[in-house]
Design brief:
Blueprint lengths: L18 E7 L5 E3 L12 E3 L3 E5 L2 E4 L3 E10 L8 E6 L2 E8 L6 E10 L4 E8 L3 E3 L3 E12 L1
């Protein structure tokens, strides 16, 4: 059969994913974080969108309802005590803990949370025993918005 009429031109909009990345550089010194203390992220942040902001060097704010993936990596010193890393969401400790199994190893946290109350604060905290992070750029966090609603 005959070819139908051409459709309307599509939008030139570019899709973006809201995200927020930051790190901490302890310089030449190790960074010891005590139990129930938040880990700082005082580097030069890279971000896109408005759903995730950083309110101070230890606290992030989620400003839109949705699902968010939080990834944290911290490189520890060989002499670090074997504490744990945990998310604090809206001022409440999340039940999942990510334990440091061996000093000198990285501790990694990856978690998806659903945010329904705005704004919601996010912190990465040390629980149990003090964790010592290595000198230089030893901790980083990436928060990515996965879905809207």
């Amino acid at each position: 059969g005959a070819t139908g009429p051409a459709g309307a031109n599509g939008s030139n909009a570019t899709a973006t994913i809201d995200h927020y990345y930051n790190y901490n550089d302890a310089g030449a010194l190790n960074l010891a974080i005590g139990a129930n203390s938040a880990i700082p992220f005082a580097g030069n942040a890279i971000s896109s969108g408005t759903s995730i902001t950083q309110t101070n060097n230890t606290t992030f704010s989620i400003n839109e309802v949705g699902n968010y993936q939080i990834q944290f990596v911290g490189n520890t010193t060989a002499l670090s005590l074997l504490g744990s890393i945990q998310l604090k969401v809206g001022g409440v400790n999340n039940p999942f803990k990510f334990a440091l199994l061996s000093g000198g190893s990285p501790v990694v946290l990856t978690q998806v949370i659903r945010v329904t109350t705005l704004p919601t604060t996010i912190q990465v905290i040390v629980t149990g025993l003090t964790v010592s992070f290595a000198s230089g750029t030893s901790t980083n966090i990436t928060i990515t918005r996965l879905t809207r609603s």
